[in-house]
Specification:
Rossmann fold, single chain, Four Helix Bundle (Hemerythrin (Met), subunit A), 18 helices, disordered N terminus, 19% strand, binds flavin-adenine dinucleotide
Length: 460
């Protein structure tokens, strides 16, 4: 065990799920499932007499939609116990997206089936405002993933439409991530409109107070977390004052920023990420970056790839001496949670968490590791990585130059771990498409799902 770093978190709750212990990452999703089923059972058991079945079922869909959207608001609160239950804020962010989309899909049968001839004057319009607002924001949120939604034959059409002059103007109007994020934060207001619509126009509530108070409780909790997130989180979250020490170009489009603590240091485990607030020449920017330094270092380092508006200009925007604030740490990407036989896969800047692991290594590595790091050209940090490998017999590095050797494949990875798929742990970080391919092929090769760990760099 490396001195100075706390032991990996124990499995949450140790819930026994049919015949096996529930993995830490499954506790959160399992809780969502239990809540959704529990509400459905409640509505089935206390269904008041005289309710038309179709409309009652439609209203249940509405109540489930409010439940899922409220869970989405709780998940994005970034509170420590959310991190615990979802095994990392990055996972909670992924589930935030999943429950929100499912909640919105349930609005369709709700609208089609529900009817209240005696609806209130305010209920109907609030319902419409809520639904339209949430759907518009959700479509905007998943736009970057349009390729996963649009069938392949239609993609050419979408690309042509996207590149049409008017579409370019519309995209300029929508702006980048920051503008999207600012408007996305209004989602809670539309959830509130939908919630009040249900409260005003829900027909079973008069005869079934238990349904009403359950509904009020669910919506109330979701909106309370929304208010916490929007008004209090910035004052109550774990924030640490730092100052930019150095801004170093590592490679074309790759910059390392080192920050020195001005007060209490951030206490992190190698592999964790943080919300990094940097005051640049054009104002404050808030972005998640994985900490690539080791906990024993005097400074915190992040390694940033030019992937968009801000990161492309970072080197010109940030200078030594500028203030920084580090929020967190977050994430549960930790090789000590794996089995004795491990594979680490890094793609491009996805090397960041592995750099922190390698830099934090002190004494023998307790497991045998094959570390695959694929990059276009000579891999940044190659010398440093080879130096660490030379000092650790159980660590083997495979630096893959994709411009010469082509993309890293699952076959090549598994060839290095002959016939050990069942007992293998795989830790991956890199481009989404690459990790999705590895995930499905490793599963097909017999690597258990609970042994495949990844850090999500893309939450949207
Ligand atoms: C958990 C996590 C760890 C990460 N670690 C690293 C790292 O170590 N090194 C690195 O180079 N990159 C890392 N990233 C990605 C990095 O946060 C984005 O590349 C960066 O925020 C892009 O900002 P931009 O303004 O240049 O891009 P934009 O053009 O504004 O956005 C490009 C894409 O980056 C993402 N993004 C932008 N801003 C944010 C934000 N504030 N919060 C979340 N996502 C955002 C969005 O998906 C967006 O579609 C990490 C992301 C996450 C979620």
């Amino acid at each position: 065990m490396n001195p100075g770093t706390s032991p990996p978190p124990a499995r949450v709750g140790g819930v026994f799920w049919p015949h096996r212990r529930l993995a830490a990452r499954d506790v959160g999703p399992a809780t969502i499932l239990v809540l959704v089923l529990a509400q459905a059972v409640l509505w089935a058991v206390v269904a008041p007499a005289g309710q038309p079945t179709g409309s009652y079922v439609g209203q249940l869909f509405g109540a489930e939609s409010i439940l899922l959207l409220s869970i989405g608001l709780v998940l994005i609160s970034t509170l420590p116990w959310v991190e615990e239950w979802f095994d990392g804020i990055d996972r909670a962010a992924i589930w935030h997206r999943r429950v929100a989309i499912t909640g919105l899909v349930l609005l369709a049968p709700h609208v089609l089936l529900s009817a209240n001839p005696h609806g209130t004057a305010l209920g109907g319009p609030l319902g419409a405002i809520g639904a339209i607002g949430m759907i518009a924001l959700a479509v905007w949120a998943i736009l970057p993933r349009w390729q996963y939604v649009v069938p392949r034959p239609l993609r050419g059409l979408v690309l042509a439409a996207r590149d049409a002059p008017i579409a370019r103007d519309v995209r300029r109007l929508f702006g980048g991530y920051e503008r999207w994020r600012a408007l996305h934060r209004t989602t809670g207001l539309f959830v509130a409109a939908g919630f009040v619509h249900g409260l005003l126009d829900g027909t079973p509530f008069d005869k079934a107070p238990l349904l009403r108070w359950t509904y009020v409780g669910i919506g109330g909790i979701g909106l309370a977390f929304y208010v916490y997130r929007e008004l209090l989180a910035r004052w109550l979250g774990p924030l640490h004052d730092y100052q930019v020490e150095t801004v170093r170009e590592i490679d074309a489009g790759l910059v390392e920023i080192a920050m020195r603590p001005l007060g209490r240091r951030v206490d992190f485990i190698p592999g964790q990420f943080a919300m990094v607030y940097l005051e640049a020449k054009d104002g404050w920017h808030r972005h998640p970056f994985t900490i690539s330094s080791a906990p024993h270092e005097d400074v915190v380092r992040v390694t940033v790839k030019a992937l968009g508006d801000y990161t492309e200009r970072l080197q010109h925007l940030v200078e030594p001496g500028m203030p920084a604030v580090i929020g967190g740490p977050h994430g549960r990407f930790d090789h000590r949670r794996g089995t004795d036989r491990q594979v680490w896969i890094a793609g491009g800047v996805g090397v960041a968490p592995f750099l922190s692991w390698l830099r934090a290594l002190d004494g023998d590595l307790p497991h045998r590791v094959d570390f695959f790091y694929s990059a276009d050209g000579e891999a940044p940090f190659a010398e440093e990585i080879r130096g660490v490998v030379d000092r650790h017999g159980s660590l083997h590095a495979h630096l893959v130059d994709t411009s010469v050797e082509g993309r890293l494949t699952t076959e090549r990875v598994l060839a290095a771990t002959t016939g050990e798929a069942g007992g293998l742990s795989v830790f991956m970080c890199g481009p989404n498409g690459m990790l999705r391919t590895f995930q499905s092929q490793l599963r097909a090769a017999g690597v258990p799902a609970r042994n495949i760990h990844r850090e999500y760099f893309d939450w949207r």
